[in-house]
């Protein structure tokens, strides 16, 4: 049986670790939070007493942590405990520079590394339908296939180490721009007497069509089973979108890229977050424009 060390068992990591366990991998898990660790241990994972203990003898090491500093700190701490020939996959959303730094520090110890950030949220993590966007060599992308397939449905190879993180923030920056644009267009229609359902149907068949209109309408009660029709509960939090837009902004500064729409979306999301909406779904940016 192949052994996977899984570090970081939060909203995403907990269900991902359980899907690995269900797929027949032996999971050696660790989280600083004892409750999170106990929850996966109850489903058959081995609860390790430390990250160093979790990586012992593992064929794969997966991390799902909040930010770059946590990921760098973890691998500085455990790199000498990871067995030779193991493959490390960091699935957190972090800046590409930190991902490359981790790749280099593991590479110096002869350990293979890919960054593999995800799209699909907590629902996708639970259902095992995540999309993984992988940065690393073609050989390591191939090696990652079985573990990633146990947790997800779509696997993409974006390029070398760090490329997964870049592709992920490009996508989320575009998503935020689409969400803001769709929200302001819908509210403009409503302010001028249109029914948002009718306007959504018209735009869905016209050139303004986009993912948010199709599957994630931000205006309450236009679509069933989306966060906007459930008081913006569940889904992808404003806090996380603001974090990803911060990463996109840092990335743009480093490459001297012009991202005016992304910068504006970031400012709107940060303001929305500061008004106490950080835990709401990111489609709640609609409220920024609506009068209610
Ligand atoms: P979370 O805060 O729920 O979980 C993070 C976990 O890491 C916590 O349980 C925490 O105790 C643990 N942790 C922190 N430092 C640690 C350390 N040094 N050693 C061991 N455990 C440690 O966060 P999440 O929602 O699961 O997100 C994790 C990552 O996935 C983030 O980078 C996030 O941006 C990304 N992401 C989240 C979503 C989402 O919808 N939640 C979607 C896509 C990507």
From TrEMBL:
Keywords: Branched-chain amino acid catabolism, NAD, Oxidoreductase. It catalyses: 3-hydroxy-2-methylpropanoate + NAD(+) = 2-methyl-3-oxopropanoate + NADH + H(+). Its EC number is 1.1.1.31. Residues 4-159 form the 6-phosphogluconate dehydrogenase NADP-binding domain. GO terms for molecular function: 3-hydroxyisobutyrate dehydrogenase activity. Gene3D superfamilies: N-(1-d-carboxylethyl)-l-norvaline Dehydrogenase, domain 2, NAD(P)-binding Rossmann-like Domain. Residues 162-288 form the 3-hydroxyisobutyrate dehydrogenase-like NAD-binding domain. Belongs to the HIBADH-related family. PANTHER family: 3-HYDROXYISOBUTYRATE DEHYDROGENASE, MITOCHONDRIAL (PTHR22981:SF7), 3-HYDROXYISOBUTYRATE DEHYDROGENASE-RELATED (PTHR22981). This is 3-hydroxyisobutyrate dehydrogenase. It comes from Rheinheimera tilapiae. The lineage of its organism: Bacteria, Pseudomonadati, Pseudomonadota, Gammaproteobacteria, Chromatiales.
